[in-house]
Amino acid sequence: MESKRNRFWKISVFALLFAVLAVISIGCASADTIYVPEGGNQKIQQAVNNASEGDIIIVRDGTYNENVNVSKRLTICSENGSANCIVNAADSGDHVFNVTADYVNISGLTVENAAGYQKAGIYLDSVEHCNIFDNNASNNYYGIYLYSSSNNNLTNNTASDNEGGIILSYSSNNNLTNNTASDNDCSILLYYSSNNNLTNNTANSNNDEVSIYLRYSSSNTLTSNTANSNNEVGIELDSSSNNNLTNNTASNNDCGILLYSSSNNTLTNNTASNNSLGIALSSSSSNNTLTGNTASNNSLGILLYYSSNNNTLTGNTASDNYNGIRLYYSSNYNRLYHNSLINNTNNNAYDTNTNQWNTSTVGNYYSDYTGSDNNSDGIGDTSHQIPGGSSIDYFPLMRQWGRTPLKGDLDDDDEITSKDAAIALQIAVGSRPFDDAADVSGDGRVSSLDALIILQMVT
Fold first, then answer.
1. What is the predicted pLDDT for the residue at 413?
2. How far apart are CA 64 and CA 9, in angstroms?
3. Using DSSP, how many helices (H) and how many strands (E) does the chain show?
4. Rounded Cα gap, residues 280 and 385, in angstroms
5. pLDDT by residue (tens digit) across 247-260?
6. What is the Cβ-side half-sphere exposure of residue 430, based on CA atoms within 13 angstroms?
7. How far, CA to CA in Å, does 20 sit from each of 105, 117, 155, 197?
8. Which residues does UniProt assign to the signal peptide (predicted)?
9. CA–CA dist 110, 280 (Å, integer)
10. How far is Cα of residue 200 from the mean position of the Cα atoms in its chain?
11. What is the rounded CA–CA span in Å between residue 411 and residue 104?
12. Average pLDDT of 23-36?
């Protein structure tokens, strides 16, 4: 019986053929389909040499020992997927596929053992509009390498056990989507590359250096990527500016997300957990905006150091770290507000420099703040001294910003427990400041009745 995987690949191949033929038919030309091995096309390179522009080469199951140069517009795909179709570098000192033509499609191949210095499983050299998808690039120096190439799509590829997984050098306006690059020294590297989109890529368990690394690269967008369990850094921006990082996850690394000498970047809704450093800005990383990020269960949640100035941190959560947010080593003129610092063991916040911890009306939430809010405006009646220096939050929040208080939840853990009833009783007898969330009876005051009602609410 034919396997589901084989049926899937045949459907994919037919769909690809249909799409290519449809495009070519617009130009009033017809594409030939060439099978390898068949007739005079026993090798992929023979088929490439014999093909005309726009032809389709379908590679049957097997292992092919060769290095393939593609200098014309072609589609090269396997018949049944990368697990069944392996192209092994005959010369390990050369690329497995060297693409020098625009509009080349390569799919469903395993490309391996181009182990020579800076050689790749698939190498795109100064080309545009190529589609590289569903390939497995392993045991090469680089898995997939784009040099001076733009407007290409890399989708659903796997690049593992290489020095570098997917490399973009001097390349712009490319889309990298749903690729997996793991067990490399560096999984995804952008070097002097701009305006690329990286979406839903996975870069885990890499051996050294950085998992997703942007160096001298600007105006790139990284969305919903995962960089976990790497020896050093999950995601790093080095001397890179105007990049947008949104909804990325970096966990179980030495450092989750690092900005090194990088400015004017925007980090939004990223998660950094179980790292030594969660999110770090270092070495004159200035004018960056961090909004809605979560740093939890790290040794240090969010760190600004070595002259990282004029950054804005708003709406971030640093919880259950040893240190929550820390600013030191001449990092000044940063603005922090609407942040939530919760249950960090050593310090929720620590600042040895000159920074602004509030706007003209609101500051941040600190789980260790002990002040009262007698007028119930959500702002503490007394300021909050930030340990480490002279910084003060003049408008500390009584609960997390933007969070609708749950009536009866007095310890902000999103649960009604007997602990909340005990807190309500303490408020009732005056040993704790008034909290409107404790007035579950709605009579404008907190009494033993409210404590009893809260206790009855416990599930």
1. 74
2. 19
3. 4, 41
4. 23
5. 999 999 999 999 99
6. 0
7. 10, 35, 17, 24
8. none
9. 37
10. 8
11. 59
12. 67
Q: What percent of the chain has a predicted confidence (pLDDT) above 90? A: 83
Phi-psi category of residue 401: left, alpha or beta, with phi > 0 → left and psi -120 to 50 → alpha: beta
Q: What Cα–Cα distance (Å) separates residue 393 from each residue in 8, 59, 88, 314, 325?
A: 59, 66, 62, 14, 14
Tell me the average pLDDT across 211-228: 98
**CB 4, CB 81: distance < 8 Å:** no
SS3 (DSSP) at 214: strand
Residue 418 tokens read as 């007997």
Q: State the DSSP string of 400-430.
A: -TTPPPPTT--SSSSS--HHHHHHHHHHHTT
Biggest CA–CA distance in the chain, Å, is 94
User: Does an H or E element contain 112, and which?
Assistant: strand 110-112
Q: Are strands 266-268 and 347-351 parallel, antiparallel or unpaired?
A: unpaired
| Residues 232/254, Cβ–Cβ less than 8 Å | yes
DSSP code, position 51: P
Per-residue pLDDT band at 433 (split at 50, 70, 90): confident
Rounded-to-integer distance, Cα 326 and Cα 49, Å: 61
Strand ranges, E, within 204-254: 210-215, 221-223, 233-238, 244-246, 249-251
pLDDT tens digit sequence for 253-292:
999 999 999 999 999 999 999 999 999 999 999 999 999 9
Which residue type does 325 have?
A: I
Cα–Cα distance, 15 to 85 (Å, whole number)? 19
Nearest Cα neighbor of 17 from 68, 69, 78, 70 is 78
